[in-house]
Design brief:
The two termini are 30 Å apart. The protein has a domain at 39-83. The chain contains five helices and no strands. α4 packs across α5. By secondary structure, it is an all-alpha fold.
Length: 83
């Protein structure tokens, strides 16, 4: 009975249902074709740049709220990336 009242349980159920809905029309052949056309020369810097951008925005957010509350960098990054 406690499991049905747990917010994380229902959040997980909803997340899995939405993920299944989002990927229901994706075909494996299309993914293989996309993978063949993929250029790692552009992908690797794009992924690295995304992480640098996320960390810099989280650090900026930490500086903005440092007057009200002290938070660890790891906590700030997880909260910012979740938002």
């Amino acid at each position: 009975m406690r499991l049905l009242k747990n917010k994380q349980f229902w959040g997980t159920i909803i997340a899995v249902a939405l993920l299944a809905f989002c990927v229901k029309d994706i075909r494996l052949v299309e993914l293989q074709e996309l993978y063949r056309r993929l250029s790692l020369v552009y992908l690797i810097p794009a992924v690295a740049g995304t992480y640098v951008f996320l960390l810099s925005k989280a650090f900026r957010w930490k500086l903005l709220i440092s007057h009200q509350q002290k938070m660890s960098t790891g906590r700030v990054v997880s909260l910012y990336s979740a938002g």
